[in-house]
Design goal:
Distance between the termini: 33 Å
CATH superfamily of the largest domain: Metal-dependent hydrolases
Strand content: 15-25%
Number of helices: 17
Mean pLDDT: 93
Largest sheet: 8 strands, mixed
CATH architecture of the largest domain: Alpha-Beta Barrel
Bound molecules: zinc ion
Shape: globular
CATH topology of the largest domain: TIM Barrel
Number of domains: 2
Structural class: alpha/beta
Helix content: 25-40%
């Protein structure tokens, strides 16, 4: 019998206080923070917190509490995706600034769909064992998303940044509450940060876009002002900077988090030392680098997890061959005509980004797992398992990958929440994933999910996607 289905209710002798306790008994508890493994464990959950963790030899099953037999199971802290965007669905129409398909589906319809499917998106994260996510930038309504998640049981914990402070504008995304705001002067930056601070953001995000018209140094004073004003409000700053010199400038100016890999060049010793000295956290987001190109070239490589647990409407939209060719933007037409070139560019990016990840991990720079889910082809929830595959290709061990997705990732959350997620320890939130096979042997097992606990409530995984779409 399914052990979760066979959930045993303690005897009638249980007191009301004890009745709130659940013990997970007999499983192997893996704590990636320090690599510690407790076999035949008794993990006691009291309300929304972990009360104790011990081996069965040390601790009998608590009398009077409910317990769940976890023989042969592997129990980990819930995963954390530190780079998502709830204002994007992951479908083909979600970034009209990159591929304008307004004539097929107006962007305002897309945004309407996204807002009305938030509960579905939340549930998909839980289905994947992801109990916390960081939304690193979107419209001001992102703050409503955080509030909604806080009051939804089947939702991950959500940390948010507000609109991105950027060197460039993106008019096609502006329906009155733009996700990206062009800032031209340090004073404007300070004023905007003060406006954001009033919403109590978990992070302030900078979109440090560099091209021929926007050299690294021209935006640098704005980065500096943004960091100074954010730090004055005790808010950390996350920066999108994908070139080595842009990333270096961002960290020199005080960025706390780099939200992508460096993809143009190998990182050098000075950069590695800079990140270590400043305790900068880096989130590689490897999966997103292949998904625009592969989607447009009709070479999408969705994993079985993505096909099973991604939103089916989003996935169906990604078939570019269904769009009448006269409505296809030039970028997609080109990719369709020359798919090998698109794949070649992805390979070139990975040749640099995967090596850089290994260099930084080996040097001891804190790496936080993240996907950039919501971008075209990067599927909310299960994209994390493709990220794990790519981290493995980079040469990280299963335990290192799990650490990136739990204890390291928790550092992106500030304050009380950050100090109580990502580990299986007394006093931490009871956010757990229960697996059927050992992810420390093979990271592919990280998606072999039997059940998920969020905030002390245990959900058999198969029940999590049954909610009707709103
Ligand atoms: Zn992003």
């Amino acid at each position: 019998m399914n052990p979760i289905a066979a959930f045993l209710i303690g005897s009638a002798l249980a007191t009301s206080a004890l009745a709130q306790k659940i013990s997970l008994v007999g499983g192997t508890v893996i704590n990636p923070a320090d690599g510690k493994i407790v076999q035949n464990a008794v993990l006691v959950i009291n309300g929304d917190k972990i009360e104790s963790i011990a081996s069965r030899k040390q601790s009998g099953v608590p009398v009077g509490s409910r317990w769940v037999e976890c023989d042969g199971k592997f129990i980990l802290p819930g995963y954390i995706d530190t780079h998502v965007h709830f204002f994007q669905s992951g479908d083909l129409f979600t970034r009209p600034d990159g591929a304008d398909l307004n004539s097929v589906r107006p962007y305002k319809d897309e945004v309407g769909w996204i807002k009305s499917h938030l509960a579905d998106t939340f549930a998909r994260y839980l289905r994947c064992g992801i109990t916390s996510v960081v939304d690193v930038g979107g419209p001001m309504w992102n703050f409503e998303v955080r509030k909604t998640a806080d009051s939804t049981a089947k939702a991950p914990r959500v940390a948010v940044a507000g609109p991105l402070i950027s060197s460039v504008s993106r008019e096609k995304l502006d329906l009155g509450d733009p996700p990206i705001v062009k800032i031209d002067t340090p004073d404007q930056a300070r004023e905007f940060v003060r406006k954001l601070a009033a919403q109590n953001p978990d992070l302030v995000k900078i979109w440090y876009i560099v091209d021929q018209n926007h050299p690294v140094d021209s935006f640098r004073p704005i980065v500096r002002a943004t960091v100074e004003e954010s730090h004055a409000h005790k808010i950390r700053v996350a920066v999108h900077a994908t070139e080595l010199e842009t990333a270096r400038a961002a960290v020199e100016e005080g960025a706390d988090v780099l939200v992508h890999s460096v993809i143009d060049k190998p990182v050098d010793d000075a950069f590695v030392k800079l990140l270590k000295d400043r305790h900068t956290i880096l989130c590689p987001t490897l999966v997103v680098f292949e998904r625009y190109g592969r989607t447009f070239a009709n070479k999408l490589n969705l994993t079985p997890e993505e096909r099973a647990w991604g939103n089916p409407e989003v996935i169906a939209s990604l078939d570019v061959t269904k769009i009448p060719s006269d409505k296809l933007p030039e970028r997609i037409k080109t990719a369709l005509a020359k798919p090998d070139e698109a794949l070649g560019r992805i390979k070139k990016t990975y040749d640099v980004a995967l090596k850089n990840l290994k260099t930084l991990e080996d040097a001891g720079v804190p790496i936080a797992a993240g996907t950039d889910a919501g971008n075209i082809g990067t599927i909310h929830g299960p994209a994390l398992f493709r990220e794990f595959q790519l981290m493995k290709e980079a040469g990280l061990t299963p335990m290192q990958i799990l650490q990136c997705a739990t204890a390291n990732a928790a550092q992106l959350f500030g304050a009380e929440t950050g100090a109580h997620i990502g580990k299986i320890e007394k006093g931490y939130f009871a956010d757990l994933v229960v697996l059927n096979s050992n992810p420390a042997d093979d990271i592919a097992h990280a998606s072999d999910i039997e059940s998920v606990m969020k905030n002390g409530v245990l959900y058999p995984a198969y029940t999590l996607l049954t909610a009707p779409a709103p």
